[in-house]
Write a structure and sequence with these properties.
With about 200 residues, the chain is an all-alpha fold. The protein has seven helices and no strands. It comes from Electrophorus electricus.
Length: about 200
């Protein structure tokens, strides 16, 4: 009979080696031309269903790695022009620029009368017109809706505050209007328009 109490424990085996890296893609856009100078814009897109691509010759089916590259030339310069992000600052509207210049010397922050979600949605809505909010309110007051169209005016109706918000926040404001953001100023001016 052999006693196992005097034997050392079996050696611990080292973990298995990591798996090998994935093979490099056969066709990359970097080999088709010089590296991009600008970062591309993010696009929201849906992937193409596999059954629409498999068995057909296309850029998406992997024919870039073959000798048939001339069938689907990719113009990287045009892609860069169309979808590249610009490095320069965006030009601001005159109304925003004047307001920012006025309180560039003061460290005070802007005042917000609307909740953040409504303010963001209204800001996006107003930016599409590329005109000052006072001009939009003047058009509403005069009943000139041709510039905006029925669809945009319907969209504006969905963004209007409820009666409680009008009485508690907007009509109760008696501070400096220069401190308001564009969406807040727009709503304040809009509720002052007589019905």
């Amino acid at each position: 009979v052999i006693s196992t109490s005097n034997l050392p424990p079996p050696p611990i085996l080292p973990p298995p080696p990591p798996p090998p890296p994935l093979p490099a893609p056969t066709a990359t856009l970097s080999r088709l031309g010089p590296a991009r100078r600008h970062r591309l814009r993010n696009l929201n897109w849906e992937s193409i269903p596999k059954e629409r691509v498999v068995g057909r010759r296309s850029v998406w089916s992997g024919s870039l790695g073959s000798d048939d590259d001339d069938d689907f030339p990719i113009d990287l310069r045009s892609l860069d022009e169309l979808f590249g992000q610009k490095d320069a600052c965006k030009p601001e509207r005159a109304d925003s620029l004047k307001r920012s210049l006025r309180h560039s010397g003061s460290p005070q922050e802007s005042v917000s009368l609307l909740d953040s979600k409504r303010s963001m949605n209204l800001g996006i809505f107003l930016r599409q017109f590329k005109i000052a909010v006072r001009e939009i309110v003047a058009d509403v007051q005069m009943g000139c809706g041709e510039r905006y169209g029925a669809e945009k005016l319907t969209e504006l109706c969905k963004l209007l505050p409820d009666s409680e918000e009008v009485t508690s926040r907007l009509k109760g404001f008696n501070g400096e209007r220069i401190m308001l953001g564009e969406p807040d100023l727009f709503m304040l001016l809009l509720v002052e328009v007589p019905k």
